[in-house]
Amino acid sequence: MGPLDGINVLDLSDPKGHFAGKLLAGLGADVIKIESPDGDVGRSYGPFLEDQPGPERSLYWWHYAGGKRSVALDLHSSDGLELFLQLAEQADIVLETWQPGRERPFDPAALSEYCPELVVLSLTPFGQTGPWRDYAWSDGVGIALGGPMGSCGYDNIPGTPPIRPTEHHAGHIAGYFAATGACAALYERQQSGIGQHIDIAMHECLGFTIESSAPWALYEQHPLIRQAGRHAGPQPTEPWQYPTADGRLINIFGMPRSEASWLALVAFIQEHGMGENLSDFELLDGRKRQLGLQQPSVAMMLADIADFIAAHEAQEIYAGAQAAGAAWSIIRTPDECLDDEHWHARGFFVEVEHEERNRTVTFPGAPYILSETPWMHGTRAPMLGEHTAEVLCGQLGLSKDELGALVAAGVAR
Question: Is residue 133 within 8 Å of 126, Cβ to Cβ?
């Protein structure tokens, strides 16, 4: 029994909202993915099973549609829209991502008025109002205009432009805000008995997450320096990434902030016969030390640390530094993450049965652990229209002949 058990969601989203729908499904809601008879565009996203494209072979789709049901319905037809409205009358949440001002089968605000108890969640690039509401969007555009890209880049390669984080980053950030907003609206509905229309602009979600860049820009009017693998800031800080003897990289996340951790780290390094100059370095307050990067003692300290890391293997450095209380880590590749002993010990990875392929597939697990209402890992991603008959006939009472006529007319699948 998940925390949203008994909550019915109609997920009409494109890839901008796929993660939001996945979060609601993981919380136990019955999420019906309404897609066109030709299939959601996410089914065309790679990578694909065994590198063979197909609407049922997209690994992207397998991940983001897991735990949902699929109803293939043409909402741009009068019959399809009427069936959707009947489903909406029985639903608790509708998630949609159509941009205002562009062709869409219904107006979300009007739907909210038509079904007063319904929570209508509109997740769009720039929101329902404003001069940018109809602007074209991509994940890269969102990261750029929202601010995160301006804080990401390299200081060790002159002239390099800003860079973006990984793909679908904007959708993940906005997805968490969307799921949170939906839960808040459901909670409020328990008091008032009335739903509401939630207008979420991905642009604003991204602007909400640019950390210290915002106060520096807003209050200090100070230009920021993009720095490789660490926070952008008004002054340069010490480099954090260093190559190891076995060809990997260690991220040192600065120096320890306490005297005890610093002395323990120095002892660990000197046990290996290195770092003789580190004993002479006076540990200052972290921010004061970062402002003094040009000081000879700081340059000497960093050189000793770099030499030590270059002379030893990553796992040994990682274990020793962590034992000293230093926030150092190995920079890992995705395939190395699959072998993470900590994740496995906590049961993070889950096995989902794909019975039609006679195989079990490993997926990432819960983003949080709820002790009394655990995350619902659910079933595999649905095949196109797999639950159309189940929903339209079972919930709306259509006969098999009526459904057959809809399929023949291309309204359903």
Answer: yes
Q: Are residues 327 and 353 in the same domain?
A: no
What backbone torsions phi and psi does residue 11 show, to the nearest 5 degrees? -100, 105
Condensed to tens digits (0 to 9), the pLDDT of residues 203-247 reads 999 999 988 888 888 888 888 889 988 888 888 888 899 999 999
Rounded to two decimals, what is the model's pTM?
Answer: 0.92
Where are the alpha helices (H) located in 134-258, listed in sequence order?
139-146, 169-192, 202-207, 213-215
Torsion on CA atoms 244, 246, 251, 252, rounded to nearest 10: -40
Q: What's the token pair of residue 158?
A: 């002159």
Residues 69 and 153 in one domain: yes
- Cα within 13 Å of Cα(402), Cβ side: 12
Three-class SS string for 237-290?
A: CCCCEEECCCCCEEECCCCCCCHHHHHHHHHHHHCCCCCCCHHHCCCCCHHHHH
Residues of the chain with pLDDT under 70: 281-296
The CATH number covering residue 176 comes to 3.40.50.10540
Q: Point out the domain boundary residue: 307, 331, 355.
A: 331
Structure tokens at 127: 């929101």
Output the pLDDT for position 102: 85
If one counts every other C-beta atom within 10 angstroms of the C-beta of residue 34, the result is 25
The confidence score (pLDDT) of residue 1 equals: 81
Q: Could you tell me whether strands 8-11 and 93-96 are parallel, antiparallel, or unpaired per DSSP bridges?
A: parallel
Report yes or no on 222 lying in a domain. Answer: no
Give the tokens for residue 80.
């399809």
